[in-house]
């Protein structure tokens, strides 16, 4: 078979498996999530090879990921986001769409096993590599917080309401990264948000292929982001983290 014939044939087989890249299909969603997750090792490797420093310096000012802080932030984000989603489903009478299908278990597995890698990868790239790169050139933290948000927002195919939501999230995540001296808070909020969306999507309660936001959804999401930011802003200054931050 000629190469010119083989390539379209291979592409056709990929399209048969992945469809149109519809995130509501478990296999396509797995492919999309893993493609993003690959940015995580790429970011760590780039820092090691190009930056000639420990990849741990992307995680926090301590040179490592502060797991107790991450777990605490993740727990808070899960409580806030789950509460908001339950309220929205009740207000909008969305419970009638609930159903357990052959896609439920795959999406629950994705929410637990793959989504955390995808969400962490985005934070390591946008709040890690890009923030530190901008910060190395422009000393005022506002530049490092704001400038990467444009690329982060452009990477999401949503309508105006959705893009406002993503922009607000990016600004909050950037500010928390600067405020707490690490990625833990941003990762916690990102993982909680995406994991619950995929879990609820597997139960038919969220349309994973939707690109249009709603005013109510935007208000709820902004409220969660704001409350989370206010709640965890000083957690890295707690006694259990002070000693860790002072380590070289």
TrEMBL record:
It comes from the Bacteria. Residues 107-196 form the CAAX prenyl protease 2/Lysostaphin resistance protein A-like domain. GO terms for biological process: CAAX-box protein maturation; proteolysis. GO terms for molecular function: endopeptidase activity; metallopeptidase activity. Keywords: Hydrolase, Membrane, Metalloprotease, Protease, Transmembrane, Transmembrane helix. The chain crosses the membrane at residues 28-49, 69-91, 103-125, 137-154, 160-178, 185-206, 218-236. InterPro entries: Rce1/LyrA-like_dom. This is CPBP family intramembrane metalloprotease.
